[in-house]
Design brief:
single chain; alpha/beta; 3 domains; two-stranded parallel ribbon; 18 helices; 44% helix
Length: 485
């Protein structure tokens, strides 16, 4: 084996070892905050989703993963089949009166907590309607009230745990109606849809931690963690140490109740500065539970002994023995919606148009390529016309009666053959010594060599060469060529 092959073998072994090390090396930990119920990474929600049946007291089959928009899940109708609602959601007076007359759930002394102090943020009123949209608002009011009177909807608890909570106006309207029927909805997110937040009556703000001064250097530094406390004394006593310590990046959002909500909302959890992170907002016969710390529901903090109680304390406010809808549409979208062409393939008309366009494009490429491509001609190989040329030239000589020229050419070619064959550069057949050497080299008798020499001399000195003489000369030359050595 050559040295080069040894080098190549060594490189191949090193490459194989590198591939093996990379393949069996432990994968780096993924800290992406997905909060998906099928992710076991630190910021997934697999553990919480797995413990929901035990926490809420329902069979595992009653905890259902939802991969559809809110409107489609609640109303049982595809959102695309209805007209998108573009007006603001307004709770009619009749519906509000009907819901206020309904008996509200009893609250214990532990639930009678202090109310969130409203901020100076401008009040956004969703009940103000322009005179041009009065008719549309009235129709929306009637539709909203009619939805509340329907009794065919089974009670269900809706749980949303995501980094951001986004929904359409139609989804928002359906979710409000779902809560007004007496259902509970838990929403844990850092950012909320502005239309939904304005409709419910709350806002969010970014938490700015206080500065602390180091004793040694006396320089102010920012704290890197946040302390959260439960407002319910019974739940607070069950928590380890009475509070929860979370990293600042995991709890950087705070809730703010608007003035129209401050008299009705209940603060369930807050930080050490009194800023709420968990609110209970009544609506109709049900409640919204709004939480601004979604990462507290992730695997990492649920499995930590000092922080796991926060998520379970928030879930303890939800009713038990009721079907639970765990939303994954906010994080994963519709089931089977990974294709980039899902919008085109979802509707029949667009699907046929897509297929027709692709077929037309393929047909255009095939037809246009054939038209633009130049035809490659088939080139026949050139025939060998040397023999035909020789015969043509020979026929020209045969047309005349005098064959002196062709005889001379024949003799010159024969003499050139003798010179190169027998190495006689100064060949002279009239010389007797030359004829003797030629006879010895060719192996022919001297008499035949002399006879051939006389015939050549005769043809060269003759005035005219007849057909018979030309044939005799050709025969003699050919005989010499075949017999000579």
């Amino acid at each position: 084996m050559t040295t080069f092959r040894w080098y190549m073998l060594g490189l191949g072994l090193l490459f194989a070892a590198y591939v093996a090390v990379e393949y069996y090396r432990p994968q780096p930990l993924d800290w992406t905050p997905t909060l998906r119920n099928d992710h076991k990474i630190p910021y997934g929600a697999y553990v919480l989703y797995d413990q929901l049946p035990a926490v809420l007291g329902v069979p595992r089959a009653e905890v259902k993963t939802v991969r559809a928009p809110i409107y489609s899940q609640i109303e049982g109708v595809d959102e695309d089949a209805t007209t998108e609602v573009t007006e603001a959601i307004v709770l009619p007076d009749s519906a509000a009166a009907a819901t206020e007359e309904a008996p509200a759930p009893d609250t214990t002394a532990a639930d009678s907590l202090r109310i969130v102090v409203p901020t100076s943020e401008a009040v956004v009123s969703t009940a103000a309607a322009d005179s041009a949209t009065t008719a549309t608002a009235e129709e929306d009011d009637q539709d909203y009230a009619a939805g509340l009177r329907e009794s065919s909807f089974a009670p269900a608890t809706y749980v949303f745990v995501a980094t951001s909570f986004e929904l359409s106006r139609q989804d928002c309207r359906s979710l409000l109606r779902h809560v007004a029927r007496g259902n509970e909805v838990l929403i844990a997110a850092e950012s909320f849809d502005s239309f939904f937040a304005d409709t419910v009556g709350f806002g969010t703000s970014v938490y700015v931690p206080p500065m602390k001064v180091q004793k040694k250097t006396e320089q102010p530094i920012l704290t890197d963690s946040v302390s959260l406390q439960l407002s319910n004394p019974a739940l607070a006593r069950q928590a380890a140490g009475g509070g929860f310590r979370l990293p600042l990046l995991a709890a950087s959002s705070r809730l703010q109740a608007r003035p129209n909500l401050s008299s009705r909302a209940t603060q369930l959890a807050a930080d050490d500065r009194g800023q709420p992170v968990l609110l209970r907002v009544p609506h109709g016969r049900g409640h919204f539970y709004i939480c601004s710390v979604p990462l507290a529901f992730s695997n990492y903090f649920v499995l930590q002994p000092r922080t796991s109680s926060f998520a379970f304390a928030a879930l303890s406010y939800l009713p038990t023995g009721r079907t639970v809808w765990w939303d994954e549409y906010q994080k994963q979208g519709r089931r089977g919606e990974q294709s980039l062409l899902r919008v085109l393939l979802e509707h029949e008309a667009l699907r046929y148009a897509t297929y027709l366009t692709l077929a037309a494009a393929a047909l255009f490429v095939l037809v246009e390529a054939r038209r633009r491509q130049r035809i490659i001609p088939v080139l026949k190989p050139l025939p060998n016309t040397s023999l035909l040329f020789t015969r043509t030239v020979a026929s020209l000589y045969h047309h005349g009666t005098d064959h002196t020229l062709i005889a001379e050419k024949k003799i010159n070619l024969f003499l050139e053959h003798l010179r190169t064959r027998y190495h006689e550069p100064g060949l002279d057949l009239t010389d007797e010594a030359t004829r003797e050497r030629l006879a010895q080299k060719s192996g022919l008798p001297r008499a035949e060599v002399d006879a051939l020499s006389r015939r050549i001399h005769f043809v060269l000195t003759a005035r005219q060469v007849s057909d018979a003489e030309l044939l005799a000369l050709n025969k003699a030359i050919n005989t010499f060529r075949h017999v000579a050595a």
